Amino acid sequence: MLQIEHLCKSFGGVAATRDVSLGFPAGSLTAIIGPNGAGKTTFFNLVSGHLRPDSGRVVFEGRDVVGLSSLEIARRGMARAFQVASLFPSLTAREAMIAAVTAHQRRSWSLLRRFPLDGSRAKAEELLELLGLAGKADVMSSSLSHGDQKLLDIGLALAMEPKVLLLDEPTAGMGPDERWRMIEKVHHLWQAKRLTMIFIEHDMDIVFKYAQVVQVLKYGAVLAQGTPEEIRRNQEVIDAYLGTDHHLALAEEA
Amino acid sequence: MRAGLMRDLLVAMLGLLLLLALPMVFPQPSLRDFLIYVIAYGLLAMSLNLLVGLTGLVSFGHAAYFASGAYVFGLLMQSGAVSIPLAMLAAVGGTALLALVIGAICVRLKEIYFSFITLAFQMFIHSIILTWVDLTGGDQGLRGGIPRPPFLGIDLGEAHTLYAFAAVIFVLCLLVMRQVWQSPFGYTLRMIRDNPARANFLGVNVVRMKLGIFVLAGAMASMAGIIMALFVSGAFPEFGFWTTSGEAIFMIMLGGTQVFLGPVAGAFLLQLLNHYVTIYTHHHGLVLGVVILLIVLGLRRGVADFAAAWLAERRATVPPAPATPEPVKTKAAG
């Protein structure tokens, strides 16, 4: 579905992404982990066309999309949600969802009819229901709780009926309980929509429980990749990222 | 959806009736003149608010299209070759084309850069008007008056008829803008206003949408210019000077950007201050400044926005009275 080949990007003298090659098969659920500054968000920006890589290929459904605008890539079916929820503050959750669906249906130019269009509305209601936001649909996006804002952010991305969904820290800024509820919802969405999903996450327990594949980035390069089990036992990863506490914890388990 | 349209049509009919009835109830010509000013500048401010309030594009050069409408219309009428409706169509079409060319450059820029480049283009057009004396009459404006030959039995040479004509055009234009405001297109513009980067990631072609509304707003502003040209029987370089754009922005600030008819309320207030304060004092600029400061610092938004927020708050605190029909949101002015 999505194949990254030898992707490189530097800002001035700093190499944010170094020769990254990764594959994401259709329907997979992949976690990207790595310490702060490892280049995780930059990687998303490169893949989604927000930044242009210095070299390398991003092959999406068999076609290199490097050089296409973020708009064109989005329209091909790659959607993303953001680390800090990126919403439309003056629209209610419902209005925002309907407007997003309308944009996906290419009916944004519709001038002679009134908002909301029936077809867009039904689709938006369905998504709000799926996300569990139906009860809060008439609340201004800016007044939603942090967790609901993150959900709506993901919902807007889903309005595009994406094939690939990039989630930048879906659980950022949440308390422990809320994190688990959030990731369970995300996992449920992945199953329900049969998406190819890639998410950045800091909470190792979440990563090891839900991801099928884990990619570890460090200083912009791939440090390791494999199943959660493999990553958990990878000495390099333990030294570089998980730290001695985890190491000890694992040793005790063993 | 249908209900919204019916309600808007009803409000429009009532507003039009009110506009037509006012000069009959108060027959002084000065009131009629005052109302025509409110209509022309209200339309200009409303068209600017499609950019400012709906799309978040603060244009400082909107008067360019007001002037373009007035001059193209005036010149065509002076040529004597076309009827009034045809000249109006040509003036609106020509201005839309002008806005398309200028907008194609401007909408690629963001925020303050957008504001500055719209201002620059306006000054460019203003200096063309000033220097092309053979065509435009330079700083004297279009001289010799604009002929108003009767068409379809309508004689705009007659002051009452001219007023009624202006009122009808005004209400029709407001209906068109209301439709834009409530259409899927209008909601997409709100997305762009709130968060253009995200709108782009959701598959919205932000640049093209902005260009679309820029052209539409320009065309609507030209309608305001035509009404003004018809009324004063001429066109003057001041129509395209930055102070005219500034006044339109003042009106929006006074009236508010988020209630649909806010700019009309603002135009009414500003014209009221302009017309009636000058009767009592030479220092009307001072009075104007104080009033604007009071509104900006005191209410922190336009009067219509303030009223709408106040009403919403009241409705939220007072337990909802059943059977009260939902107050019409667009009642700020007729």
Give the strand tally of chain B: 0
Name the chain pair whose interface involves the most residues: A-B, 39 and 30 residues
Q: How far is it from the N-terminal to the C-terminal residue of chain B, by CA?
A: 23 Å
Biggest β-sheet of chain A: count, sense, barrel? Answer: 6 strands, mixed
Radius of gyration of chain A: 19 Å
How would you state the average pLDDT of chain B, rounded? 88
Query: Which whole number gives the mean pLDDT of chain A?
Result: 86
Shape annotation of chain A: globular
How many helix segments of chain A? Answer: 9
| Secondary-structure element order of chain A, N to C | EEEHEEHEHHHEHEHEEHH
The helix-and-strand class of chain A reads alpha/beta
Compute the separation of the termini of chain A in Å: 37 Å
Structural class of chain B: mainly alpha
Q: How are helices and strands ordered from N to C of chain B?
A: HHHHHHHHHHHHHH
If helices are DSSP runs of H or I spanning 4 or more residues, what is the number of helices of chain B? 14
